[in-house]
Amino acid sequence: MDWIDLLQWPAMVVTVVAAWLIGSLRPGRRMFGFWCFLLSNLLWVIWGWYAGAWALITLQVCLAAMNIRGLRKNDHADGASSETPHPPTAGSSERDARPL
C-alpha cells in the first residue's frame, strides 16, 4: 500500500470535523469549518488524482466552489455588527424572534 492510499483517511476525518463545525452557531467556528472543508477538498482531489477517480475530483471541485461561497456568505454575516431579528410571525411570540 502506497502512502497516498492512506491520504483518504485524513481527508475523511477533516471532512467530518468540517461538517461538525459548520453546524455551529458561532460564526468563527463556521468559518473554520469552511476552511476545513476546503482542506478536505484538496486532500480528496490529491487522492482522487492518484486513484484516477475523476468523478470524485469533479465533485470536490464543485463542493469547493460551494465552500468558497459559504466562506463569503459567512464572512458577510459575521461582518454585520448586529443582526436584526425578524418580526414575529402569526402564532409565534416575541421570544421566538430573538436571535440564538
In words, what does this structure look like?
The chain is an all-alpha fold. It contains three helices and no strands. It has helices at 8-22, 27-51, 54-79. The protein is elongated, with a radius of gyration of 18 Å. The model has no long low-confidence stretch (mean pLDDT 85).
Q: Over all CA atoms, what is the radius of gyration?
A: 18 Å
Mean pLDDT over the residues: 85
Question: What are the segments in which pLDDT stays under 50 over at least 5 consecutive residues?
Answer: none
Count the E strands. 0
Backbone shape: elongated
Number of helices: 3
What percent of the residues sit in helical stretches (DSSP H or I)? 55-70%
- Main sheet specs: none
What portion of residues belong to β-strands?
under 5%
- SSE order, as H and E? HHH
Please state the structural category. Answer: mainly alpha
Quaternary assembly: single chain
Topology at a glance:
Blueprint: H1 8-22, H2 27-51, H3 54-79
Using brief descriptors, characterize the structure shown:
mainly alpha, about 100 residues, single chain, elongated
